[in-house]
Amino acid sequence: xxxxxxxxxxxxxxxxxxxxxxxxxxxxxxxxxxxxxxxxxxxxxxxxxxxxxxxxxxxxxxxxxxxxxxxxxxxxxxxxxxxxxxxxxxxxxxxxxxxxxxxxxxxxxxxxxxxxxxxxxxxxxxxxxxxxxxxxxxxxxxxxxxxxxxxxxxxxxxxxxxxxxxxxxxxxxxxxxxxxxxxxxxxxxxxxxxxxxxxxxxxxxxxxxxxxxxxxxxxxxxxxxxxxxxxxxxxxxxxxxxxxxxxxxxxxxxxxxxxxxxxxxxxxxxxxxxxxxxxxxxxxxxxxxxxxxxxxxxxxxxxxxxxxxxxxxxxxxxxxxxxxxxxxxxxxxxxxxxxxxxxxxxxxxxxxxxxxxxxxxxxxxxxxxxxxxxxxxxxxx
Length: 381
Description:
By secondary structure, the chain is an alpha/beta fold. It is built from 17 helices and five strands. The model is unreliable at 200-207 (pLDDT under 50).
């Protein structure tokens, strides 16, 4: 059964009764005025009269302060738990904040108001939710996911260039901000690579370095090594055209000789119908052997060897090797040499015909070469 009077009400009535008694009023009128029995009056007087009332008041105030401090401590502990478990990083967009608030409510039993206060989320923004997604945006998101599945190491820039080359998105506004926003909303953000340091060494500060001015003007090549699942080594002979960034050849073998290099270059000339003006490479034994130098002098091809210990001078080949390893070799397990040849040809076709290139304004090497040929037909003739 609930108590009829609170301590504060009892103290107030005791003081009122004592004042009435001091004024000379009889006890009968006092207890009638207070609406209590005489036994209750003396019980109240014993418990709350005189100095006991002041002590009781101070006790109640201390209890209230203690309860307030306990609540503050409990809230602080709960806030620390939420921040350590739910909000481990910095939220830069509304949706992660909404997910964090919901997680704090479900995992810790926090109220919506408290969770929003701790996580810095506006309550009206929490209830607003995401806007409805239109058909065009849904289709665009689906295409971005498809690109990410097919090319896991591509970023949003290459994905945008790839979509711009598709007839389905011709005339649709696919600006950089929109693609980047949707790419991140889909959770497809790719970690950026480390910025490369400027190299220094022999020839690093050379100003008049040979630069390609047209297709097959400068052809660079280099070797790249990998292993099969059984631990045997494979060497890839990579040849690229520096002007159009076209991959002319990716040939895997167990070993190479100078004669093999000559045969590969002759196959490239037969396929393209163009003899390169310069070939750029390092000073490896396969590239400085008599067979290759004799072939160059016979075919009228000039050599452009880089300085020893300066791989940055053959930057186009080194960059191509890095992309080949990152986009193909790292994600594939090769059991045999035949499988390595298939994977090399597959990525070469993707690189030349599907993969947008940043230095070519988002065009593929094949398309860039084709466009250059169409624009310079008279000069070629």
